[in-house]
């Protein structure tokens, strides 16, 4: 990286690229937004708009196994999110990489409560789909390269300067971009948030998650599992078969010391411990791939907007992975921003007369995201605290809740709606 004097020289010798929207961070949230906006620009061009929106995307990493946003994780994409990705024209590219979830089994270790959700009884082809982020990253990056987006990658944001009618971004290599609107999709340690000294609230759960791929003796047949244990929740998602090998993607929340120990424990000890915690509902676990750990904290910006700036995805809120909602919620941020932009651009004055970074736009985004964002964060905090606890009224309450759900299927509908990402605006 250049020192401040070198950077100033470099910046003054390069031309400033003027765009309408600069997105910082091109992982799940930033890349889907960029591609969604590129589609919007194409639509504008096809109806003869004078100047379709110009978009720049700045991402520090090219796809590789070092990429922090497209790593070894597998994530569950809800039914609702798949609908949104189809609307954005992206699902057709991700579908061949995905494994459908046909059934979800939820249980509470050592207690009687358990329930099941299944796609057949809800008359759906699937409840959600599982994708491996590394493969998704490669796909989205190749689409970005083919689009009209000004792609700065690998390139890192160095600083951002707020001006009255634009934001001036300087990259570590001295290039400069002037944008009417900055979208910060640069994750939990957002450089944009730090530059504008915007607060981040954090709730510690005192847990770390181990993630790994687990090889099973019996085929998974599209089952996903969520098991609440005394030390924290454990989730297993079905993955694509690898040369006839059945694999499940594990997220296991544990006290940090136990997570650290199990991360490097011999494979046989790890598998025994996991089998003990989970039981044999998915058959015998026969092998485990590379293990990684993540600290589990809920981090969120109380107010994810600033002058000509919108924060979304993990930059706005980073959730506990217990309910598999992080990207699903981030995607709803993306969709909302695109809707708000469409509304601004549809103004009869046209784009030239309308400012895509106006406070009207940022406030509209803030207002529209309030209920879903707060509701999702509250329900996840309730799940983590309520199910990682042996306080008896909570144990009785949650077990009765799970049992009632399985005895009275109509009660499942609202729960299923939430799990599948159809809870927006409720
Ligand atoms: C173990 C685990 C399991 C999960 N399971 C699920 C699940 O089942 N379902 C679900 O919906 N979600 C799940 N999530 C959450 C989901 O993975 C995240 O919400 C999502 O990937 C976040 O994407 P993002 O683009 O918002 O942020 P990030 O992935 O944090 O990306 C930020 C990007 O910004 C870039 N960047 C940072 N600083 C700069 C800079 N200065 N200049 C340029 N670029 C920069 C980084 O390189 C990175 O690519 C899970 C998370 C974990 C940890």
Report on this model:
The structure is a single chain. The protein is α+β, with helices and mostly antiparallel strands. It has a single domain (4-202, 297-419), classed as FAD/NAD(P)-binding domain. It contains 13 helices and 20 strands. The protein has helices at 4-13, 28-46, 79-87, 91-94, 133-146, 191-195, 256-264, 267-278, 326-345, 350-353, 359-387, 392-407, 412-419, and strands spanning 16-24, 55-58, 74-78, 99-101, 103-108, 114-118, 128-132, 150-152, 157-162, 167-171, 176-184, 201-216, 223-229, 232-238, 246-254, 285-288, 292-300, 305-306, 309-311, 317-318. Helix 2 packs parallel to helix 5 (133-146) and helix 3 (79-87) packs parallel to helix 9. The longest helix is centred in the C-terminal third of the chain and has 29 residues, at 359-387. The radius of gyration is 22 Å and the shape is globular. The termini are far apart.
Mean pLDDT: 86
**Using DSSP, what is the number of strands?**
20
Overall number of domains: 1
Any idea what the CATH architecture is?
3-Layer(bba) Sandwich
The kinds of small molecule bound in this structure are: flavin-adenine dinucleotide
The percent of residues in helical segments reads 25-40%
Note the gap between the termini: 47 Å
* CATH topology assignment: FAD/NAD(P)-binding domain
CATH superfamily: FAD/NAD(P)-binding domain
Described by the principal axes of the CA atoms, the overall outline is globular
The largest β sheet comes out as:
9 strands, mixed
Treating each run of at least 4 consecutive H or I residues as one helix, how many helices? Answer: 13
């Amino acid at each position: 990286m250049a020192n401040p004097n070198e950077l100033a020289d470099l910046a003054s010798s390069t031309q400033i690229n003027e765009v309408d929207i600069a997105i910082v961070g091109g992982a799940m949230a930033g890349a889907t937004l960029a591609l969604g906006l590129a589609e919007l620009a194409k639509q504008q061009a096809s109806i003869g708009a004078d100047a379709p929106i110009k978009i720049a995307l700045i991402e520090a990493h090219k796809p590789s196994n070092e990429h922090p946003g497209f790593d070894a994780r597998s994530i569950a994409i809800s039914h609702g999110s798949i609908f949104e990705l189809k609307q954005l024209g992206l699902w057709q590219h991700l579908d061949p990489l995905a494994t459908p979830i046909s059934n979800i089994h939820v249980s509470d270790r050592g207690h009687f409560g358990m329930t099941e959700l299944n796609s057949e009884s809800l008359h759906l082809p699937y409840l959600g789909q599982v994708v491996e982020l590394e493969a998704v990253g490669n796909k989205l990056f190749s689409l970005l390269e083919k689009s009209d987006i000004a792609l700065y990658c690998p390139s890192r944001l160095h600083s951002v300067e707020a001006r009255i009618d634009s934001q001036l971004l300087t990259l570590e290599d001295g290039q400069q971009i002037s944008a009417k609107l900055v979208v910060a999709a640069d994750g939990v340690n957002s450089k944009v948030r730090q530059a504008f000294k915007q607060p981040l609230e954090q709730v510690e759960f005192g847990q770390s998650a181990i993630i790994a791929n687990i090889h099973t003796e019996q085929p998974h047949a599209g089952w996903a599992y969520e098991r609440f244990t005394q030390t924290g929740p454990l989730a297993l998602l079905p993955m694509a078969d690898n040369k006839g090998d059945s694999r499940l993607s594990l997220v296991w929340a544990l006290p940090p010391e136990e997570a650290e120990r199990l991360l490097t424990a011999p494979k046989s000890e790890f598998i025994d411990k996991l089998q003990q915690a989970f039981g044999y509902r998915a058959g015998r676990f026969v092998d485990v791939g590379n293990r990684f750990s993540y600290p589990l904290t809920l981090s969120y910006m109380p107010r994810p907007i600033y002058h000509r700036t919108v924060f979304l995805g993990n930059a706005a809120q980073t959730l506990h992975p217990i309910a598999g909602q992080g990207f699903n919620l981030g995607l709803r941020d993306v969709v909302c921003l695109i809707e708000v932009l469409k509304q601004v651009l549809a103004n009869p004055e046209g784009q030239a007369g309308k400012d895509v970074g106006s406070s009207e736009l940022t406030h509209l985004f803030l207002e529209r995201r309030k209920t879903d964002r707060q509701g999702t964060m509250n329900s996840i905090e309730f799940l983590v605290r309520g199910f990682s606890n042996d306080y008896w009224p909570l144990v009785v309450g949650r077990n009765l809740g799970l049992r009632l759900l399985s005895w009275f299927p109509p009660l499942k509908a609202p729960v299923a709606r939430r799990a599948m990402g159809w809870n927006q605006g409720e």
